[in-house]
């Protein structure tokens, strides 16, 4: 059975194979509420889709950050309702950014496996231009945290120039936000002991990142809604 953009078409065995987990793990996550229930088709067979794959990938990333199952449950429960695979992929990329060094050296076959698809020479050049991979002879240094996001950008109807310009805008504004938040929180913890400051920083980082992401998503949806209204008037 193959995947379909219109709906869930994966059996539980196919879902587990694509996600690199066991069927037992998929069922366990379902009982914990970490995965939505499958769509029940003919013969009472459960079908899964891209949303389930994206959630499994996010859970895997949270585990790699050292989060306990209870912490992962809390994180997933805080996610806004109705997030699609693209939104979940962004969350995964943000979670991956919590790791200071997310760069690995892989060969072409492993790079394509991580990307989830074959990559042409043009694809590799565009990923390199976005700073997500760097060729080093027969191997590639890859930022594994954002590789899947970069691969999705390859299929977007946007020019390379527009993507790079958007990247610069995001970097500029995210640095400004980080600077302002740092100054704000620094005033709050200036009287604390050093170890308390480190503990507070570790606890707050995922919360702040998630708050920024949620705020940005809402703002972007509002901007796109206004854009559509203007386009309809024109």
Shape annotation: globular
Total helices: the number is: 10
The succession of helices and strands, N to C, reads HHEEHHHEHHEEHHH
Spatial strand order of the main sheet: 3-5-4
Instruction: Give the uncertain stretches in residue-range form.
Output: 1-6
Task: Quote the distance from N terminus to C terminus.
Answer: 44 Å
Enter the CATH topology name of the largest domain: Multidrug-efflux Transporter Regulator, Chain: A, Domain 2
Helix content: 55-70%
Strand content: 5-15%
Given helix and strand content, the structural type is mainly alpha
Number of domains: 3
CATH architecture classification of the largest domain: Orthogonal Bundle
Radius of gyration: 20 Å
Protein architecture, described:
The chain has 234 residues and is mostly helical. It has three domains: 1-83, Multidrug-efflux Transporter Regulator, Chain: A, Domain 2; 100-156, no CATH class; 160-233. The chain is built from ten helices and five strands. Strand 1 and strand 2 (46-47) form a beta hairpin. Helix 3 (50-64) packs parallel to helix 5. The radius of gyration is 20 Å and the shape is globular. The protein starts with 11 loop residues before the first helix and ends with a helix. 18% of the residues are buried.
């Amino acid at each position: 059975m193959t995947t379909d953009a219109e709906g869930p078409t994966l059996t539980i065995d196919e879902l587990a194979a694509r996600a690199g987990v066991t069927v037992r793990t998929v069922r366990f996550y379902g009982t914990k509420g970490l995965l939505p229930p499958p769509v029940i088709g003919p013969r009472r067979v459960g079908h899964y889709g891209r949303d389930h794959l994206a959630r499994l990938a996010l859970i895997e990333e949270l585990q790699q950050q050292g989060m306990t199952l209870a912490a992962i449950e809390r994180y997933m429960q805080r996610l806004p309702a109705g997030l699609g695979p693209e939104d979940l992929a962004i969350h995964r990329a943000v979670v991956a950014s919590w790791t200071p060094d997310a760069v690995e050296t892989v060969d072409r076959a492993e790079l394509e496996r991580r990307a989830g698809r074959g990559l042409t020479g043009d694809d590799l050049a565009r990923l390199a231009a976005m700073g997500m991979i760097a060729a080093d002879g027969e191997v590639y240094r890859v930022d594994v945290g954002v590789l899947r996001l970069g691969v999705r950008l390859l299929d977007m109807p946007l020019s390379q120039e527009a993507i790079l310009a958007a990247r610069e805008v995001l970097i500029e504004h995210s640095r400004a936000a980080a600077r302002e938040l740092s100054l704000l929180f620094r005033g709050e913890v200036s009287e604390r002991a050093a170890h308390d400051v480190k503990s507070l920083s570790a606890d707050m980082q995922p919360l702040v990142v998630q708050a920024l992401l949620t705020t940005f998503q809402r703002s972007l949806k509002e901007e796109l809604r206004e854009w559509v209204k203007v386009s309809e008037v024109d």
